[in-house]
Amino acid sequence: KQEVTQIPAALSVPEGENLVLNCSFTDSAIYNLQWFRQDPGKGLTSLLLIQSSQREQTSGRLNASLDKSSGRSTLYIAASQPGDSATYLCAVGTSNTGKLIFGQGTTLQVKP
Amino acid sequence: DTGVSQDPRHKITKRGQNVTFRCDPISEHNRLYWYRQTLGQGPEFLTYFQNEAQLEKSRLLSDRFSAERPKGSFSTLEIQRTEQGDSAMYLCASSLWRGMGADTQYFGPGTRLTVL
């Protein structure tokens, strides 16, 4: 059974700092991995999707990497801003059904 | 692009009552997913449709839960005889599946259910 873990559960950093969020999964046979952002009481916004054949994806200040062999993904946020404050969720797609298995999320606070 | 919409945004009901939620996906998307999220947890998969066919249901989806997507467009999720444990955020997502590769899921704002 695939399990997804995100550490730490919460993170507080000063504005401008570069940071890394971690995601680990137990079964390396994944179809894809997605990173989402969730603001309080809101739905999820897709940030990056990495297919199983890819090693990384970049969008603006965000870079996500994937290492299937070690069961890990990282989301790198450069030059953090207060507007980046949110919960970041990692989700693993286990087949072409699109079904996603989510981690519990890391709640990020960027202080001005 | 109107995005994924869900209605209602909030629902408060008494235990034992039936509730129905609606999801309108992005218009050209052929896949539609339902997830449930409780406080402090990541979303959990409930079920998904490809066009009008319901292709997978989680064991979380007890007999009290039923979902439909009658014309391959909007979907409804009904919960019968609600229990306090049903209190959660119900999220809908849609995607365009082209038969290969990965499809990004786009989420709606969710329906927050409170069962008293």
Can you describe this structure?
The complex is a heterodimer of chains A (112) and B (116). Chain A is globular, with a radius of gyration of 13 Å. The model of chain A has no long low-confidence stretch (mean pLDDT 94). By secondary structure, chain A is mainly beta. In chain A, β6 and β7 form a beta hairpin. Helices cover 0% and strands 57% of the residues of chain A. In chain B, strands 2, 4, 5, 6, 9, 10 and 11 form a 7-stranded mixed β-sheet that branches. Chain B starts with a strand and ends with a strand. The model of chain B has no long low-confidence stretch (mean pLDDT 93). The chains are: A mainly beta (112), B mainly beta (116). Chain A binds chain B through residues 4, 31-32, 34, 36, 41-46, 49, 51, 89, 91, 93, 97-105, and chain B through 4, 31, 33, 35, 40-45, 48, 55-56, 91, 93, 95, 97, 101-110, 112.
Topology:
The complex is a heterodimer of chains A (112) and B (116).
Chain A: E1 4-7, E2 10-14, E3 19-25, E4 32-38, E5 44-51, E6 56-59, E7 62-67, E8 72-77, E9 86-93, E10 100-102, E11 106-111
Parallel strand pairs in A: 2-11
Antiparallel strand pairs in A: 1-3, 3-8, 4-5, 4-9, 6-7, 7-8, 9-10, 9-11
Chain B: E1 5-7, E2 10-13, E3 19-24, E4 31-37, E5 44-50, E6 53-57, E7 65-68, E8 75-79, E9 88-95, E10 106-107, E11 111-115
Count of β-strands of chain A:
11
Rounded to the nearest angstrom, the distance between the terminal CA atoms of chain B is 36 Å
Helix percent band of chain A: under 10%
Distance between the termini of chain A: 41 Å
**String of helices and strands of chain A:** EEEEEEEEEEE
Q: Enumerate the spans of chain A where pLDDT stays under 50 for 5 or more consecutive residues.
A: none
Number of beta strands of chain B: 11
Quaternary state reads heterodimer
Rounded average pLDDT of chain B: 93
* Low-pLDDT runs of chain B: none
Taken from the alpha-carbon principal axes, the silhouette of chain B is globular
What structural class results from the helix and strand content of chain A? mainly beta
Output the number of helix runs of chain A.
0
Q: Would you tell me the structural class of the helices and strands of chain B?
A: mainly beta
Largest sheet of chain A: 6 strands, mixed
Question: Per DSSP, what share of the residues of chain B sits in E-state strands of 2 or more residues?
Answer: over 45%
From the alpha-carbon coordinates, what is the Rg of chain A to the nearest angstrom? 13 Å
Order of helices and strands of chain B: EEEEEEEEEEE
Number of H- or I-type helical stretches of chain B: 0
Greatest interface and its residue counts?
A-B, 25 and 28 residues
- Gyration radius of chain B, in Å: 14 Å
